[in-house]
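BUG-191 | component: ligand-complex export | severity: low

The export step for heme C jobs runs without errors, but we want the raw record kept on the ticket for reference. Input record follows.
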Amino acid sequence: MRSLATFVLLAGIASTAAAQSDPAATYTAEARAAAGKFMAQLGGELKKEISSGGPASAISVCKGLAPQIATSLSNQHGWKVSRVSLKPRNPVLGPADAWEQQALLEFDRRAAAGDKPEMLERAEIVEEPQGRYFRYVKALPVQPLCLNCHGAAGDVAPGVKERLSAEYPNDLATGYANGQIRGAISIKRPL
Ligand code: HEC
């Protein structure tokens, strides 16, 4: 994989003027908007379901709605939109590929060095054997809400634990603390 351009950006740096003249900045702005939509829609539904039905019942939101939003955004844009992690819960949809792993490791390093996890993102144009792509990842930091299903043993209620181990026997996605990086929204756009 050869990088044609590497530009690691923090949210808000790309100005409108830059977006107009630089296609990579436009791609970044568009990817950022789609990732924002994904997080807002999923976060809203998760909060609603946790407060009405409790965290065990909200598992179905993560299991059903998250891939549905990802597919709908993918179809709408003609991109591949997904959620990935270095420690996936879903062994089919969740694992990060090599480029995503590298970005997630960098996010962990930068968060440990004091960067705000909610600001971490990476955008790059890459050449892969299948073609040229714009790739983007946006870090998903663990918030108190996430601990219901991704936290340490004491944070996850017994009913939730039971359902998770039944549905995800190879679950790697527990033991997180607030502020750590759970994974990322990843966007792969053919150019
Ligand atoms: C109600 C339980 C629940 C809560 C709360 C929850 N998740 Fe999850 N999460 C899941 C389940 C279940 C999956 C597996 C979904 C699937 O099958 O694709 C998952 C998957 C993920 C994935 C995809 C990668 C993987 O591990 O397979 C990410 C990223 C993720 N969650 C981040 C978060 C973040 C960040 C929060 C808090 C904002 C959060 N989750 C809150 C249950 C939860």
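Assignee comment: Attached the raw record above. The longest strand covers residues 131-141.
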